[in-house]
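note to self: dont lose this again. the chain is below, predicted strucutre after it. 609 aa total, dont forget to put it in the shared folder this time
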Amino acid sequence: MNYLERKAIEGILEKCRVTMEGLVQTIVLSKGKSTEDYLLFYFDKPEVHGLMEEALKGGEERARAELYRELWKAYEGLRERAMVRDVQFLLPDGTVLLRLRTPHLYGDKPSQVNPVVKRALETSLPQKGFGTDGVLSGYVYAYPLKDGKGKKLGLVVFYVSLEVLRSFLKEVNPGVSYAILLKEDILQRVFTEYRHYYEEVKGLKGWVIEDPYRKLKDSAGSLSQEEEKLLRALVLESSFTRALSMPGNHALVFRSQGAYYKAIVVKIGEGDKESAVLVGMPSGADIQSISRSYTTYEVVFSLLALALSLYTYFYMRGLYSLRLSHKSLEMVLSLANAGVVVLDKGGRARFLNDTALELLGYKKEELLNKVFHDLVHYHTGPLEGCPIYRSAMKGMSYKGEDSFLKRDGNPIEVEVDVKPIRIDAFLEGVILSFYDITTRKEKEKKVYDMATHDQLTKLHNRWYAEEFFASELARAKRQGLPLSILMIDVDNFKNINDTYGHNVGDMVLKSLAQILKSSVRSYDLVARWGGEEFLILLLGDGQEEAVSIGERIRRSVESLSKEGIPKFTVSVGVASYREGDDINSLIERADKALYKAKSQGKNRVVAGE
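---
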């Protein structure tokens, strides 16, 4: 390749570089606008504000469970439509209240490792940029949440996978290979247990590639053999390593082992601490085909850039009307990853989409024109008893949770939505859409368990106890039933911690929890009220029975002999329901009785007056 030919090729490459750079910026902008809409439609609304407010007042467990229950479907739609890897809710101090992707992980502070989140907290203004969610790299969009009076409630943070870039560009021009390289500094911001998914780029010190074998669903890895070959040739080229260290974006052409290679390097990182590059690598060829391919490449990307620019323009111009079409967007989202089945008035399947077949494990011919209820509905019984079939017969809408049976015999939990189909006022059947919510139900149960149980003793916590107590007290009043509570406190617990250490103190509390559970009936409530104090709600028992149970507990604790646990005792206060009592008056009498037991020498049971 002579000097003039090389310059011509570099000129074409430079135009392509500018186009690719514009594409990246346009994609980032459009994703930002999408997350703004999702924020408005689903996350920045009064119900969410109320739950964030509750979390700030100490009700984090309940707020977390209710937020997950309220927003999981919107999140699933975002994953399918916008490659949003995670949505997180942060409190004003930066603490994670909820991760919709992994709701059991919370309590850390992403602002310590994510400058985008840090800026949003400090400025109380929307921020976007490059970052990581602790697992994978991507774009971060952080939006402050405020109530109607401007009070700070926290942040909503969207994480969009970098794969959105690679997959989009690859689809447009499959003849070009794309790789995303990351500075190894990013590993400091990745959770330790996920760092092994990143591999050093051989021959390129200080740079890593994310999940090269695509073990994680949303990663931007998985290079083909041809792409790996191109990348190996590229990292040996001094002009490429210089391009990485120099500011700005670059277009390169070079020769290696008798073949010509081309590369476009677009920086997609932010600053020196967090940076990444998108590398476009067309395969090697002779000069003429290089010119032809890059002319085509330039035309394709120029047209694409124009289309995306027009899209962005009309998107922004039509934003107001889009917001007025909230319900339409909800419907699109609800069907994005749903199984869809059309049933006639006899309950026979006349149409099934691919998602429905995939979720149920059937081939189309195995369900088409068959009675859907007989093959798929988990519940036995006549067809007439099926709520979906009744909807088909009567032309009624139906929405609820149910169980379907897969072809392999395993049940799945589903959420179903049934709408009648009418043609010229005549009922023709129904359209059934359904989600597999098995995983969601499992996560929801886990979140609910964490929200309602004490993690050390596995007993119910105070929040759950107060809710349960209120409902049972109301029932006792209506039906005239006796009800009693025991307040149990470990004697000299501070001395146990100071003498033996907190680990032994925890063992004492767990041993006491086991004794309390075994001393009452399955329908009585045992809860950790706080610290070393426990509450038992006895349903249907008056004061005499309650004192007897308290004595049994006291004796069991006193006689406990367990290796590694010092001898300890408890004091017990008892209060029974009287006409006119509410929760506060009952607890106050039990507390006074407990205080009296302590002041009389501890290790005793005292009934409230």
